[in-house]
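Encode chain A's predicted structure.
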Amino acid sequence: MSAPPNAARICYRAGVLPAPPRIELDVVGDRTAEIGTTGGFADIARPLLVARYPDGTKSASFSYDNVARRAIDAAVMAAHYVEGGRRWVYLRSAIRPPMALRNDGVRHPTTLWELPAGLIEPGESPAEAAARELEEELGFVVGAADMRPLGRPGAPAPALIGELHYFFHVEVAPAARRAPTEDGSPLERGAVVVAVTVAEAVEACRAGAIWDEKTEVGLRRLAELPLP
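Encoded structure for chain A:
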């Protein structure tokens, strides 16, 4: 079958992707004032952009709405331990109002099982935020130096927000867990913490019982770690 007209044909070795085309974006204006912002957890920004292509041409200016937030990035933590020859990981229930606010006429679950996660505050390192959030959401007191990277940062929704997720894992002792300190918001009240084997958690992702994609990414990366 022939390729569509003007379709780019990219050949690459198995398992090696070529670099994507380098397209630069210039901010040439700001139209945020015409939509207004809320001053809440997240705002909408509307910059005016021009794209510069590898062949030297430029696009016409265009506006692009995106989510703006005081703390843009987040840390995702997999707290785990080994027992009975299997690795166990802690999950926490989380209320996600946007799931209830969908307008597709389908009743979606608003409380999801997730790996604990939280925003990286200005001035914090990703590892410092991970340690702080672990105490707030699971009740484990660890230091930033105890957090181990779990793969590279990922962009969860790059078409909507420039947020990066920094993944960490840390080995914990179940007996050391205290009551989570939480952050005082209604969304963290009444959360449930459970420990399941990593294999069971990954299977729950396959079965659709875990909806949160950052959690699935973290769990699958954790599953690749060798047992001690």
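The mean pLDDT is 89.
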